[in-house]
Amino acid sequence: MMMSYTPPLREFAFVLDEVLQAPQVLRALPAHAELDGELMMQVLEEAGRFAANVVAPLNAIGDREGCRLEHGAVSTPPGFARAYAQFCEGGWPALACAPEHGGQGLPHVLDCALYEMLSAANHGWTMYPGLLHGAYACLATHGSPQLQARYLEQIASGQWLATMCLTEAQAGSDLGQLRTRAIPQEDGSYRITGDKIFISGGEHDLTDNIVHLVLARLPDALPGSKGLSLLLAPRVLPDGSRNGVHCTGIEHKMGIHGSATCSLHFEQAQGWLVGEPGRGLAAMFVMMNAARLHVGAQGLGLAEAAWQRASAYARERRQSRAPGGTGSDLIVRHPAVQKLLMEQRCRIEGARMLTCWAGLLLDLAEHDTDAAMRRVHHERLELITPVIKAFLTDQGFQCASRALQVFGGHGYVVETGIEQFMRDARITMIYEGSNEIQAIDFLLRKVLADDQRRLHDFLALVSADAEDVSVLGDQARLLKNAVDKLKDYAQRIAQAATQEATLPYFVADEMLRLTGHVALGWMWLRAGRRALSALAADTRYYGSKRDTACYHFAFVFAEVHQLSSVIEGCLATGLPPLPTDLDHHAAQEAG
Fold it and tell me: Which domain, by its residues, includes 467?
């Protein structure tokens, strides 16, 4: 089935120009002083055209055909290589890279929008360039001048793709268990030996070279994650010879069939150190955090694509009589279907506002002329990154499931194509740090570790808007109440953890999701107020936005009550007892 996709350009214009005032924010930065809203929309129109006309038609093909491994070489699905060549010809890999490295120097917020559209159009294909900017940022921050001269421009242009080689069979989330070794050589290079699994784009036919960024241990490394170093090992060495990196298998997966997920064997592969010895994780996290923001955009994009199909189907499918109707009605007139579609719409449009805000934070953290403010923007981005990764990918899968539900039984058969979005979306909740790990990172490291300072800074931004009850006052009061609860819970969890060390781990997911709802509520409050102020200019569009904001607070934001009751219960009465046989088999093995 042909997978059509309509870029949500009017929605991007509303979010960037009207809700976030992105052109004004960016023009205050010397790096983007010449930027205006018209140029931003021209870029997004071209990006949307590429996503819809070039990448989207390959989505079903990629899912059906998948990748093939023969004699250590991976062939991507038909059309993928040509589409990638067009991607590079259009200059899209270099969109947000620095001009001195061959980039266009455009804002990161546009890159976020680009990758939402690409993910919506074809998640499997988008996996290949998805790590480019993270690899670029990692090398630009930590690479030696020699490595930067050799690799940065090729990565920025997309001429060479990149991978992130972390996971090993015995070491999934626990990177301290990694066994891959790197032995120093007299010429300053290293010889890398070990095996990595789940490497997205570890081998393919899209580019002549692949730049592998590999976590490994040097001979004198400390145990655990503190002993890891980061190395760059290309598929093709500078002299043109093939490096000792071999693809030993590709995974047969539930979804993203068009993406080659590889097992790689490094056998005395030549590599070069990136950053300082034993500081590999610090360097890798530059790439990983960029990847986590992209994964949040993947969840959003998949939800948008699934919603588009469900909404179109509901407007053509007739079934039974709607309440108050006569005869067979379009299912879009049934309240049950309207609720399914409206929930998706609220989550998707709120998520778009949040990811664009994060993109602006990235621009401000990089280009603000005030060093102290650059740090503030960076800390805000640190706080919101695990929320975007976990909360938006949870929502992406949930929205894809709701979209399938609109199709009824027809959604469960492959011919309609809607089930692919559920399968593709499921991985986003797992890779780049599972959502459970994101929640733990958020609560323990981003909130409790600094006495809630970053959380309070974020909530102060929200409160500044929620304090005003002159417009959408009921919604503002709901949001302010949630802000107060979140502050209170963070403080009480910190106190309770001194007596019950495991309590934060049990409520981390609820705290992250509660923060996510506060963030989306903040965005919808701003969007609703903007819609009311512009109502006379376009009653239909802005009236719909106003109504969606109110619907969000009535139906979606209400999840705050359930999350609060779980947290409140744990704080008031302590953790409930766990079944004694929960770890029975593990205890037997340990015994």
Answer: 438-576
Are 76 and 158 in a shared domain? Answer: no
Residues 268 and 166 in one domain: yes
What does the pLDDT look like over 348-396, one tens digit per residue?
999 999 999 999 999 999 999 999 999 999 999 999 999 999 999 999 9
Active-site choice (116, 419, 432, 510): 432
pLDDT tier at 3, thresholds 50, 70, 90: low
Q: Is 494 exposed, middle or buried (0-12, 13-18, 19+ CB in 10 A)?
A: middle
CA torsion through residues 374, 380, 386, 391, sign: negative
Query: Is 415 labeled as catalytic in the residue annotation?
Result: no
Across the range 487-500, mean pLDDT stands at 97
The residue assigned the tokens 């509660």 is 514
The kind and range of the H/E element at 164 are: strand 161-165
Is the whole model's pTM more than 0.90, yes or no? yes
**8 Å CB contact between 439 and 386:** yes
Question: What pLDDT does 583 receive?
Answer: 67
| Pair (150, 133) in one structural domain | no
The pair phi, psi for residue 574, each rounded to 5°, is 85, 175
Report residue 363 CA to chain centroid gap: 17
Whole-number pLDDT of residue 517: 98
Nearest to 271 by CA among 175, 170, 180, 202: 180
Look-up: residue for tokens 């009550």?
Answer: 561
Which residue type sits at 356? Answer: C
Q: What is the arithmetic mean of pLDDT over 564-568?
A: 97
Condensed to tens digits (0 to 9), the pLDDT of residues 498-522 reads: 999 999 999 999 999 999 999 999 9
Q: What is the pLDDT of residue 584?
A: 57
DSSP per-residue codes, 177-215: G---EEEE-TTS-EEEEEEEEEEETSS-SS-S-EEEEEE
CA 119 to chain CA centroid, Å, is 10
Average pLDDT rounded to a whole number, residues 330-339: 94
The full DSSP string for 270-335 is EEEEESSTT-HHHHHHHHHHHHHHHHHHHHHHHHHHHHHHHHHHHTT-B-SPPTT--SS-BGGGSH
Question: 561 and 486, same structural domain?
Answer: yes
DSSP at 143: -
